[in-house]
Amino acid sequence: MKKGRISIFFLLLSIWVGHIFATQQDGNLIYFVDTANFKMLEQDKTFFQLYFYVAPSQLDFRKEEGKYIASFQIHLTLRDTLGNEVKDETWKNLVMLNTLQETKVGTPIFDVQSYLLDPGIYDLHIRVTDLNSDKYGDLSSKVRVRRFSDDRFELSDIQFAISIKRSNSKMDRYFKSGLKIMPNPTRIFGINLPIMYFYLEVYNLNYKEGGNGTYEYEICVYDENNRKVITVPKVKKPILSRTEIINNGLNVIKLATGYYILSIKVQDNTNGNVAIAQDRFQIYRPPAGPIAKLSKFPVLTEKLAQEYYDEIKYIATKDELKIYKSLNLEGKRNFLQKFWNDRDPDPNTPMNEAYQEHLRRLKYVREHFSSSLKDGLKTDMGRIYIIYGEPDEIERHLREAGYKPYEIWKYFSKQGGIEFIFADIKGTGEYELLHSTARKERKDYDWRKWIKVR
């Protein structure tokens, strides 16, 4: 038997951005963006799709003639590695709901944009603006547009979806390959979305007209410890063309809260060629017992009110902090409730994901950056971690000859890629920020002079 080739396409979230999380945005309007690459037959271009998700609670609705109406605008630009503008587009979306309750927990708002692009790396910038208020959300990131082969056996990216149905409506923006695919840019499944739908294309099968060749695929799910938690029996299908599609729904209701890898292995049985596509998704299950939404902040004392102020001062606007300081204790309590409710990315879930992530960051900062003399929240590393979260990559230089210990934190998908350089200048174990490429952060391109051992 002829030995086949194996191709593996694994989206490394720490390097190339596929799923762009809401916490990677600037501004006060939270949304989700996901991307996927597909091959264009008989063209050198790649079919590149962007999927958007906005929760109704993020928008300002106004009552008009018995309806609640919101309008938001999306401005998108793409630039190639030379800085040339490839796309510069603006479009508006109108949302009309029947009741005030729907504006709080109504149907999520989706959008999709499709482009034919040359393969390569692009700088993507998106601004979503609520046209009824001053709320906006900025996102800057590098995205990869894949290059597909004309003859190598390979797979497209995986598109995650909330539903996939047969359709003949080719004018529908969600239409692809005879299907209407409603995307799930959050990639979050669970109680509200127990079936994880996904779509994948298979390219360059060994098709022969009148032949009886077959291909087969196997679906597995792995947890964060690389343990296989779901295995679907192999499915064998006839090869009817050089390109085939795989669309399926997988019941994930029994999975615990956490991150998982969906792995799809496809084999062409005529020649043994194998390709594997993998990508990450998330399961959320509400905890047993009290629901994890913020029902009410505790009664505040002056000390507790100051502690809450210290915990939000890096992520709140100047106006918000000014208002907070001007309020009495009950007013501050109500302010905190509204502050976090406004930042809840999806009121349809029992958990306020933004608040839970903030609590996780606070816990990490205090456990890793605190000393006997200083709360980790008041250190440079603590501040950056609270604002930007876990770095995608950390370079630790603890014993570099001629230099004091220093670290470089890298965020590949924030503001198009940024770095923070910290050093233990005083030899106390506390790392101070020397230089950053992020907007509105300290800049000193000659930062190495501060860490030279004299």
Question: What's the gist of this structure?
Answer:
The protein has about 450 residues and is mainly beta.
Which stretches of 5+ consecutive residues score pLDDT under 50? 1-24, 288-292
Question: What is the arithmetic mean of pLDDT?
Answer: 86
CATH architecture of the largest domain: Sandwich
CATH fold topology of the largest domain: Immunoglobulin-like
Helix amount, in percent? 10-25%
The biggest beta sheet reads: 6 strands, mixed
- The level 1 CATH classification of the largest domain is Mainly Beta
What is the SS-derived class? mainly beta
Q: How far apart, in Å, are the first and last alpha carbons?
A: 67 Å
β-strand number: 25
Q: How much of the polypeptide forms β-strand, as a percent range?
A: 35-45%
Shape annotation: globular
Radius of gyration: 25 Å
Domains counted in the coordinates: how many? 2
Number of helices: 6
Describe the structure.
The protein is mostly beta strands and 454 residues long. It is 14% helix and 41% strand. The strands form 5 sheets. Strands 1, 15, 17, 18, 20 and 21 form a 6-stranded mixed sheet that branches. A hairpin with an 8-residue loop joins strand 22 and strand 23.
Helices and strands, with pairings:
Layout: E1 6-10, E2 26-27, E3 32-39, E4 46-54, E5 62-64, E6 67-79, E7 85-97, H1 100-105, E8 109-117, E9 120-130, E10 136-145, E11 154-155, E12 159-166, E13 175-176, E14 179-183, E15 188-190, E16 195-203, E17 214-222, E18 228-238, E19 244-251, E20 258-268, E21 274-284, H2 302-312, H3 318-326, H4 329-342, H5 353-368, H6 380-388, E22 393-397, E23 406-411, E24 418-423, E25 432-436
Parallel strand pairs: 1-21, 15-21
Antiparallel strand pairs: 2-10, 3-4, 4-8, 5-6, 6-7, 6-9, 9-10, 11-16, 12-14, 12-16, 13-14, 16-19, 17-18, 17-20, 20-21, 22-23, 23-24, 24-25
